[in-house]
Amino acid sequence: MQSPIDLIDTRVQVLSHLGRLNRDYKPAPATVKNRGHDITVKQVRWKGDAGEIKINGTKYKLLQFHWHSPSEHTINGSRYELELHLVHKCSQGNLAVVAIVYKYGRPDRMLTKLFHHIRSVDPNHDKELGIVNPGDIKFGRSRKYYRYIGSLTVPPCTEGVIWTIVKKVRTVSREQVRALREAVHDGFKRNARPTQPLDGRPVYEYSP
Question: Which one of 37, 66, 68, 88 is the catalytic residue?
Answer without folding.
Answer: 37
